[in-house]
Amino acid sequence: MERFLTLLSLYLLLSIPASADQIYKYKDQKGNWIFTDRKPTKDIEVETIKKTSSKLTKSKPKIYTLTDDKVNYIFAQNPYYAPIEVQLKIKFSENVDRVFTTVVPSNSKFKLYESNEEIDKYYYTWVMGSPETLAKSYTYRLPISSLQDHRITQSFNGRFSHHQRPNKYAVDIAMPIGTYIGAAREGTVIWVKDDYHMGGAKEYFLDKANYVSVLHEDGTYATYAHILQGTALVKPGDKVKSGDRLARSGSSGFSTGPHLHFVIRKNIGMSTVSIPFQFIGEDDEPFTPKRGMTVFSPPEEI
Fold it and tell me: Which of 32, 56, 203, 259 has the most CB atoms at less than 10 Å from its CB?
């Protein structure tokens, strides 16, 4: 029965149209949370979840040329609340390329290259974060704000999807749809996406997940993925403290069921990797997350 109710809730979630501006949340007669885009007609207590996606989130770094007084420039425009590393390849002749790598500060317009010669062809790639920062040892708060126990279903080097460098040291924590997600560490919100309503285990969903990313003072950043559509409580540029609520859990993107995908990442030089970490337990002792563990992290204020 419990599995049936979970699947029913997931079905209702996946039935919400992408254009829905708000989602209604209420409890059925058995106390199970129901999510729908149709306002219940029955006389019951209903919560409204409004969509809070930021247009700024959809902005991407821009690389462009500019000529001033016969001098040719290549500039980078970084819209994020975090630095990015840009690698620029300029073609000088058929067999000669020059490569320049630069860290562009957050929210800035930055000169990458200048020349008195005409700039013919150039190519670029970019990666979030600066490789010049060093990750500090830090014990993370569990990224949950809930009065329930939750089970870790996949951890470091997980066979299902935690075997590539950006996700090698990720953790999946199963939780009912709508569970509050709390910041595991203080920082600045740099990415928010909560505009997608579907999920599944097909390749089509690999880039569809909703998520919140928070930059830490040591240059690492945490990503909280698969959040429920329209439930982000923060926007890019917000400062958050450990334990602050960020969003509600869901099953958006590449997902087999409702859970939180949590990972700490860093740029090591035009390459994004995940890094191992520890959580702080109920006994205030640090522990390394393992598959099958049951974890508990109540809200900061009850």
Answer: 259
